[in-house]
């Protein structure tokens, strides 16, 4: 119970810190404090903490310098207090009821369903969690080296995951620094942060006038998937964290497109900056989010159909014709079925592999609640055939591009080896699952709104 209490206190402090940062940013604006305090403040606070720790590590100073964030905690008290006052005494009691229901669901899960002992994989124990122990034993700024670097340098500590991002090890370090050497608190932080994400998801739908049936469906989708539940309890793995941060980034980008203020821009920058802190593929998701923001301006309905036709023709030419090659400028530009080179900027060896069976297993058979993915054609047709507001169009374009990139990597590059041995294909799917659920629920919500005569939604 002590670990549970400390984890909830940690989330409260992150929320106060995030609310303080956003309040400081919005001073002098008309942005309401109640909306400010609910603007993903927990994840905003997490981003500020992790980036501050990175800076402390870079400057090689004491972690006690984290105390510079204390004034921001004080700034965050007032907006968070106003939110709870509105929930309990104001006109937003239904949101308070939603919060209580999600809190009870979390407590039920944590106290009665979650395994008493954490699931810890060997590579997690030797990698991400071990980083925090190394920092505790040898200093927070000690260089971590891979095998080659360690053999060639006189100073530094060997770590098998030295080249991986430090976001998750930094969270472990926080609690170990405070005395939790057995990572007991982190065992509660995993499900707590995920259920906080569920609450933010449902709150967003509630404010979009979703009914309780749709809220219940969303809750079941987000909490009932076996693969998600496994990773909530799989300490040291960052895939579920990547899924959460990716969804928060999608929310932040959508908010910025709806209301491009300094506050929404700051939240967007912080959420995007969290992506590469947890997994290296975070750079890919960040790039695709920014690319979706740019191309969605031009992807009106007619352009989407033309683009789909061009991609279909291109794939047919690429795969069905005999071996072919095109080169230009003394072979500084080469495009063939097995190799793509664009000067010194980009080079990729194409290795087509038939991993259809593995991809189907990753989507439909590998403990991932395959029923969900049968709705993929519905979401795709919704993107293709419906005229959307800008904030929805960007989100949907991002998912289509992300899923296309996912298929390209596993079918046409050496990443196919990670599909053939089933080590990554389901985990990449997990990272996109929360965004897909959001888009699927968005389809149902927009269908309800169209039946009510919403003129913003037009189909062919």
Task: Give an overview of the whole structure.
The protein starts with a helix and ends with a strand. 68% of the residues lie in helices and 6% in strands. Helix 1 packs across helix 3, helix 14 packs antiparallel against helix 15 and helix 19 packs antiparallel against helix 21. It is of the alpha/beta class. It is globular. The strands form four sheets. It has a four-stranded antiparallel β-sheet with strand order 5-6-7-8, with no helix packed on it. It has two domains: 279 residues, no CATH class; 159 residues, no CATH class.
Task: Sum up the structure in keywords.
460 residues; alpha/beta; 68% helix; disordered C terminus; 2 domains
User: How many domain units?
Assistant: 2
Main sheet specs: 4 strands, antiparallel
- Global outline: globular
How confident overall, as mean pLDDT? Answer: 80
Low-pLDDT stretches are 455-460
Overall helicity:
55-70%
C-alpha end-to-end distance: 56 Å
- Derived from helix and strand composition plus strand pairing, the structural class reads alpha/beta
């Amino acid at each position: 119970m002590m670990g549970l209490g400390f984890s909830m206190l940690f989330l409260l402090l992150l929320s106060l810190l995030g609310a303080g940062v956003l309040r400081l940013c919005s001073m002098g604006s008309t942005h309401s404090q109640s909306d400010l305090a609910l603007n993903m403040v927990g994840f905003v606070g997490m981003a500020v903490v992790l980036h501050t720790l990175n800076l402390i590590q870079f400057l090689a100073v004491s972690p006690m310098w984290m105390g510079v964030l204390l004034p921001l905690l004080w700034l965050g008290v007032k907006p968070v207090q106003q939110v709870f006052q509105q929930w309990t005494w104001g006109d937003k009691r239904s949101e308070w009821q939603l919060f209580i229901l999600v809190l009870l669901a979390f407590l039920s899960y944590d106290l009665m369903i979650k395994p008493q002992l954490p699931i810890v994989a060997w590579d997690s124990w030797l990698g991400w969690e071990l980083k925090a122990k190394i920092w505790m034993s040898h200093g927070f700024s000690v260089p971590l080296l891979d095998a080659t670097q360690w053999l060639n340098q006189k100073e530094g500590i060997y770590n098998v995951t030295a080249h991986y991002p430090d976001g998750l090890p930094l969270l472990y370090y926080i609690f170990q620094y405070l005395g939790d050497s057995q990572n007991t608190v982190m065992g509660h932080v995993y499900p707590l942060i995920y259920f906080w994400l569920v609450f933010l998801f449902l709150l967003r739908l509630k404010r979009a006038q979703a009914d309780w049936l749709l809220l219940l469906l969303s809750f079941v989708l987000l909490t009932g998937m076996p693969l998600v539940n496994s990773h909530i309890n799989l300490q040291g793995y960052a895939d579920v964290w990547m899924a959460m941060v990716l969804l928060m980034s999608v929310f932040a980008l959508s908010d910025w497109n709806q209301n491009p203020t300094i506050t929404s821009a700051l939240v967007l920058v912080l959420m995007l900056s969290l992506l590469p802190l947890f997994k290296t593929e975070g750079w890919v998701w960040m790039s695709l989010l920014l690319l979706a923001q740019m191309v969605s301006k031009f992807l009106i309905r007619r352009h989407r159909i033309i683009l789909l036709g061009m991609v279909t023709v291109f794939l047919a030419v690429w795969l069905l014709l005999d071996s072919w090659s095109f080169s230009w400028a003394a072979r500084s530009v080469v495009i063939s079925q097995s190799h793509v080179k664009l000067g010194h900027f980009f080079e990729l060896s194409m290795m087509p592999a038939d991993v259809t069976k593995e991809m189907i297993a990753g989507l439909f058979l590998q403990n991932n609640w395959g029923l969900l993915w049968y709705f993929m054609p519905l979401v795709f047709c919704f993107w293709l055939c419906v005229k959307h507001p800008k904030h929805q169009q960007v989100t949907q374009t991002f998912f289509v591009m992300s899923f296309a990139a996912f298929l390209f990597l596993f079918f046409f590059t050496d990443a196919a080896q990670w599909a053939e041995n089933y080590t990554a294909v389901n985990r990449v799917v997990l990272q996109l699952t929360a965004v897909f659920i959001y888009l699927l629920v968005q389809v149902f919500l927009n269908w309800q709104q169209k039946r009510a005569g919403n003129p913003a939604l037009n189909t062919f």
